[in-house]
Amino acid sequence: MVIVMEKIKQVIAVMLMVCSAPMAWATAEVDNYRLGSGDRIEITVYAEPELSQSVLISSSGMFDYPYLGNISAKGKTVRQLQAVITDGLRGDYLVNPKVMVNVIEYRKIYVNGEVKQPGGYIFQPGLTVEKAIALAGGFTDRAARKKINITPNENGMTQKGVALHTSVAPGDIIVIEQSFF
């Protein structure tokens, strides 16, 4: 009986480790995420409903916030933006503000070329080229499945012939070329 219980404990421990690994990866990815134009964020200030709001980051990477005016969010992590707002509200407006910032809608990725429904799709953490193609309705009959290019939003340098498991970031452009046969 004791041996069986130990085996059950080992199996449960392994299952917990396996299940929590993707969550840890996703949390690290979100923690390092850099905000940009097109992201929608939610700012919550504890016990201050008039300061809690949802905002869309403009094409300039800025948004307007009560008492603080225009705030630059472009290139900042959620935690960095949270610190900017907290520091701005501290003192003149609030004694010890409790601010939380969350991304509620990421900017779009674009899937073009030989897919059934080309266009822009809202980014989701953990998105790969294969999943993005699935969002776009899958390959057309004329798609060259080995000729997939991705242009990252960050540097604009097109990567040719990427694998289906390649990670996609917000703002990236994926193009599936046409097959000749």
UniProtKB/TrEMBL annotation:
Recite the UniProt keywords alphabetically.
Answer: Signal
Domain (Polysaccharide export protein N-terminal) spans 29-103
List residues of the Soluble ligand binding domain: 108-152
Tell me where the signal peptide lies: 1-26
**PANTHER family in the cross-refs:** POLYSACCHARIDE EXPORT PROTEIN GFCE-RELATED
Designated name of the protein: Capsular biosynthesis protein
Can you name the source organism?
A: Vibrio hippocampi
